[in-house]
Every structure is written in C-alpha cells, then in structure tokens.
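Ticket #157: bound-state structure for iron/sulfur cluster.
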Amino acid sequence: MDLPDGLERGDKVLVSACLMGEEVLWKGGHDLNSQLLEALEEAGVELISVCPEMLGGLPCPRPAAEPPHGDGRDVLAGRAKVLGVETGEDITSEFLEGAWRAVEIAERKGARFAFLNERSPSCGVNQCHSGGGLAPGPGVATAALQAAGVRVFPGRD
Ligand code: SF4
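RESOLUTION: The complex was predicted; output attached.
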C-alpha cells in the first residue's frame, strides 16, 4: 500500500481504531486493515488509535446514524445534524464531542497525518454516509481534523 509523501519515521499518526482491529464499529466488530498497519509499521511511524464515536460517549454496538443531508463539514457548521437512521435520535453532540476529542489528541501528540475509515459518517475521507446514501465529502471527525491542519487519508478503499 502506498503511503503519502511527507510521512517521516517517528511521526505520530492517528488511525481509526476499527482499522486497527478494535471492536468499535457501530454494528460491533472491526474493520482490520492489516495491509495498512504493515505499511505504517514499515514506515516506522507511531500509531495512535482513535474512535471518534466512542470518544464522544456512544456505546458499541450503537444504532446506525448519519446526517440526513450534507457531510461532516455541514455538521461542524451547524447546517446538518446527525440522526439515528432508524431511531431519529439526535446524536449530533456526541459526534461533535468525539470529533473535537480526536483533534485534541492529534494536537497533544503532534500528529500531522491520519488514516481513517472511508465512508463512515465520522471517519469518512472522500465519502461519508449521508441521507441514505453517500455524500462526496468528509465525515465529522475528518472534517474537524482537516480544519485543524491534519492531513487525513482513507485507511481503506
Ligand atoms: S469508522 Fe471511526 S467512528 Fe466508526 S468505528 Fe471506526 S473509528 Fe470508530
């Protein structure tokens, strides 16, 4: 797996906890990406596991949730909420709390790069679940990290 230019040995790198094999997905289970982990290990970087949704206080498993429209930038700007897909419950504040906590960890550790789980409403990079489909934009945590200057890459296809 190709890693981005500028990544240096010893860099601190945020990685979605589910991609590291931690059982934190909304439906339970994980999305381990061994190829990514091997490439990062070879690059000699230090991995920092984060699950924004768990950091925001949500349980595992938890109901599927997404914004009814827009992407993570819209949620950050207050133009969209995050709602349970079936429950309709408003969990915007948990998503925002998790996003800011991820930013806090990145800043505290000096992480300039992150590899997050594509299409997640929190961790998506080029796409995120929204409105019953996919929106062409970042999830909430990715948008917050990008706004803080972290370079975020999809941690899987
Ligand atoms: S995609 Fe992000 S928020 Fe969802 S389980 Fe993985 S780390 Fe947590």
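RESOLUTION NOTES: The radius of gyration is 14 Å.
TICKET STATUS: resolved
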